[in-house]
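FAQ: What does the model actually see?

It sees only this:
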Amino acid sequence: MRGPARLTATGGKVGFTFVSKPEMAVRIIAMQEIRPDQLPAHLRVLFRTTDPLARRCFAVLDGSEPDGVILVDGANDTRWAAVMEPYDGVVFMAGRLDASMVADIFAHLRREGEVQAAMWLDDVRLDLLPSSPYDDVRMLEFTDRPIGQGLDEIVERVPPGLQLRSIDGDLIMRTMWGPDDVERLGGVSAWQASHVGYCLLDGEHILCEATVGPAAIGLREISAVTTEGHRGKGYATITLARLIQDIESQGVSTYSVCEKQNAASAALARKLGYRVEKEYRCLAWNTLA
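And it is asked to produce this:
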C-alpha cells in the first residue's frame, strides 16, 4: 500500500516522493513537475506525434497550453516523462515505464482531478494502465482533410437572415464554452492570441459556435456546439467549414474526434472531407479522495 506523498523542492522544480511497501520491500518512487523548457531533449523526442490527440500533448510541451502538467522521474538519469493536457486530463507517456510506475503517475494526477488515457486499439501500453477505469469508450479520430478544398459550397449555404461571424473579444463572452476558456487563460486577450472561432447568428442570438485552441505539430483540433432547439439543421457543418477555411488559409491542418457511437458527429466529419478515420480507446479514472 502506498504511503502519503512528501512534497520537496529540487532545483526550482517541484518534487513528489511516494513510498510503497509491497510485502517485504520498500520502493521509493520520486517524480518532479517541471516546465516545458526543463524537459530533457532525449525524452521529448519519445512522445509520439501519431498518438490519438497528440496535438494536445505537444501544445503542453510547446508551452502554448500553460495549464498542462509535465512530470518526470526524480532520478539523475531521467528515464520517463508524462504529460497531462488541461481540458480532459488526458495523459501521454514516454520513456522506460512499467505498470507500477504508471500506477504511481496516475495516482498522483488523480489527486487533482479525473484522468484519462487515449490509445490506439493495438497499443501495447494499454497493458500498463491502472485497472478498473470507470469508463472505456471507443472513439474515432478523423484526419487527412485536403487543404483548401471542398468547403466553399458548404459555407455558401448560410440560410437567409443568418450570418457567420468571427468570434471577437465581445462575442466570446456570450458563447457557451468561451467564458471558461477565457478565465483559464487569464483574459480575453490571451484567448484571442491562441484561439480562433466562428459563430452562426440569427441577429445577436448564437445558433452554433465552433472554436479551436492553439496549433501544435501543425494541427488544430476543431469542435462545435449547436444551441438546443436548432440541432439537425446543418448549422455545425456550415460553422465548422468556415472555421476550417480560416485555419487552412494559414497552412495549418485540422482533425476531429468523436465517440464511435455518435453517428451524427462521425457523418459530419466525413462531410467536411476527412479521408482517414481511426478507432481508439479512451479510458477514464475518477478523482482519488
